[in-house]
Amino acid sequence: MIPIRDLNPTRNTPWITWTLLLLCGLVFLWQAVLPEGVDRDFVFAYGLVPRRLMFAHDPGALVTVLTSMFMHGGLMHLIGNLWFLRMFGDNVEDNMGPARFAVFYLLCGFAAAGAQIAMNPASGVPMVGASGAIAGVLAAYLVLYPHARVVALVPIFIFIQFMEIPAYVFIAMWFGLQFFSGIGSLGSVGGGVAYWAHIGGFLAGIVLVFLFRTPKPPAPRVAFERPQMPWRQDRRR
Questions:
Q1: Structural Rg of the chain based on CA atoms
Q2: Residue 167, domain extent
Q3: Average pLDDT score over the chain
Q4: What is the pLDDT, as a whole number, of residue 39?
Q5: Closest by alpha carbon to 21, among 109, 67, 69, 82?
Q6: pTM
């Protein structure tokens, strides 16, 4: 399934979501114009390399937990991540507000990095991408708007059809794919998709959304009025 858009309007301009989209795009453009060889050094310097962080005792490696969240490994990688962030981030930000959403997004990204490191701490392959933090955004959307409708392209045999799917169905299927792909990736030593970052970011989002969401206002209290009994009505004319 390829998500096209959600049918869930927002009330406010999603400034943080648009800022994140812009930052990721600008960093990718910077990567694209670097000379051959320098671009590889840039990725190793600012991408998250678990082995460097865990065993090299390099304090500078800590900053890569943040910088790696704004880097991407290719144009399709960038487009896929930004498409999901654009589609689901505005509603989550609308609920949380800009400041809380920014903190929530970063914490999910940090949790995603921690999960990937925990599963393969000796890896020397740089991890880049915003997908771990975006997985947390999907989790928050699932909690906040489970019944919102997502318009998606769904292949049915040789046909492709537009369908409206409840958000909880779409996101549950997405997470199931990440989970089983993550299980299948255990023991892998090469590059590829950081499925455990997706899983870690999603689980962090499921927990953190309850701390960062805007609670629903309490229902208005209705004063109880005692009905007037017929036999107590004033019969005077």
A1: 23
A2: 2-215
A3: 86
A4: 86
A5: 82
A6: 0.86
